[in-house]
Design brief:
132 residues; alpha+beta; 4-stranded antiparallel β-sheet
């Protein structure tokens, strides 16, 4: 993923597993291609609180196998891959951390796959829009 200007892992006390955040700075409606300094800790949190960043992440962890009708979540009617226990906990913790850190969240775009939508739902990210 070297084509992204910056890679960050943000962790809070409640978010022990961390989540890889790929952060691309947006300026003048263009992605800045110049060298962007690597931020961590308080500097990263301060920058994220200012807004103006695009945060790109994958869904939380899910097993490779699709569930059966007996093991699928009730709303997983297409029997797609869904989050495992660790993935559900990580998605929930991620949402808690973003709110506790007061990171402003604008548009939320998600893949229509069940595991991606489930990640967004468990993180309590508002008004997600599915895109293909």
């Amino acid at each position: 993923m070297s084509h992204w200007p910056m890679e960050m892992i943000v962790q809070s006390r409640q978010w022990r597993t961390g989540v890889l955040l790929l952060v691309a700075s947006m300026a003048r409606q263009h992605i800045v291609s110049a060298q962007i300094p690597t931020l961590s800790g308080d500097a990263l949190i301060g920058a994220l609180r200012q807004g103006g960043y695009v945060i790109v992440m994958r869904h939380a962890t899910s097993p490779r196998d699709v569930p059966t009708r007996q093991t699928a979540n009730p709303d997983n009617v297409k029997l797609e891959r869904q989050l495992d226990e660790s993935g559900r906990a990580s998605a929930t913790s991620m949402g808690v951390a973003l709110r506790e850190l007061k990171v402003p969240i604008g548009a939320v775009l998600t893949s229509p796959t069940y595991r991606a939508v489930e990640t967004v739902r468990l993180a309590w990210l508002e008004n997600p829009k599915t895109v293909r």
